[in-house]
Amino acid sequence: MARLIVPTDYSTTAEKALDQAFLLAKKDNDEVELLHVVVMSPTSDSPKIYDYIMSGKKEEEGRLKALAAERIKALGLPATTRWRVKVLYAEHFLVAITHRFEKSKAKLVVMGTTGISGLANKIFGSNTANLISKAELPVLTVPPSWKPTILQKLEFCLPPEEVPAHKKEINKWAKWMGATASIAYFTNIADAVPNQSKSPFPIKTIVTLPEEPLYEDLVEYSANLKATALCMFVHERLTVFERIFDRSVTGQVAGRVHIPMLALPIKAA
User: Fold this and answer.
1) Residue 10 DSSP SS3
2) Cβ–Cβ under 8 Å, residues 34 and 26
3) Contact between residue 4 and residue 140 where contact means Cβ atoms under 8 Å apart
4) What does the DSSP assignment read for 27-87?
5) Which of 3, 55, 61, 160 could hold 30 in an S-S bridge, CB 3.0 to 4.6 Å?
6) DSSP letter at 161?
7) Residue 223 near residue 192 (C-beta atoms within 8 A)
8) In this structure, are residues 194 and 205 in contact, taking their beta carbons and an 8 Å threshold?
């Protein structure tokens, strides 16, 4: 079964996400699924329109296969690298990805972002941010400036008092990716030094300015990190007002950060 799903719109950014997924899958020879979603309007129910759209499926699958083979060769990965392709026709892009993730019992969705300007104007980048904000699936975002590499470190951003509640998840993802885990604690209180002895992971305290948005601090802090993914837990928004007006820090960081970001869903109680 596919462990990593990589939706693509054939852009350069999506290609980088595919490369990163192949490198992630390398450790345990996990399977990568390259997914292309063709959005169909309700009017596509017409038999003639439906047949016309479906007639291009083989061609689309061939394009995906060629892309996968090209990237495996470019990365110097072995012929035993496991992958598959999938073309889906659906009315809603995000719903299609969610259903595919659940049906295939996947581990992770890997998607590219288009940067802050693109995130506001390009459909693919916007879908990446929206998928994160839904807090339903674990998503690894790959920015356009990133050079895909083996990840050696996962930097989790959360208060020290929340570490015990997430210890199991942190260990699980670090083990699967073959990376070490550490905690980045952002605070605007200069003397807020956490007790290191109570944490199973190294904690780094970053003192910030009260007037600066947290996402700006996260982006600035992560700018010089190498072979590292910034990791954040995303909380589910339950009400319509929360979903519309509360733009998550995670979603804002995803469109600006220059290293991969792993967004892990936490269901609200």
Assistant:
1) coil
2) no
3) no
4) TTT-EEEEEEEEE--GGGGSHHHHHHHHTTHHHHHHHHHHHHHHHHHHHT--TT--EEEEE
5) 3
6) G
7) no
8) yes
- Angstrom distances, CA of residue 92 to CA of 74, 95, 131, 181: 32, 5, 12, 35
The whole-angstrom separation of Cα 223 and Cα 220 is: 5
Q: Angle 12-26/57-75 helices, nearest 10 degrees? A: 60
The pTM score is 0.85
d(CA 125, CA 57): 24
In angstroms, how far is CA 186 from the centroid of its own chain? Answer: 22
Amino acid, single-letter form, for residue 256 = R
Residuewise pLDDT in 10s, the chain (269 residues): 468 999 998 988 899 999 999 999 999 899 999 999 988 766 555 666 666 566 678 889 999 999 999 999 999 999 899 999 999 988 888 889 999 999 999 999 999 887 444 433 344 446 777 787 776 899 999 988 899 999 999 999 888 888 999 999 999 999 999 999 999 888 877 666 666 667 789 988 887 777 667 778 888 888 889 999 999 888 765 433 334 334 456 666 666 788 999 999 886 44
| Buried-state track 173-183, b at ≥16 Cβ within 10 A, e below 16 | bbeebebebbb
The helix or strand, by DSSP H or E, that contains position 227, with its residue range, turns out to be none
Could you list the beta-strand ranges (E) of 91-214. Answer: 108-112, 139-142, 153-157, 180-187, 203-207
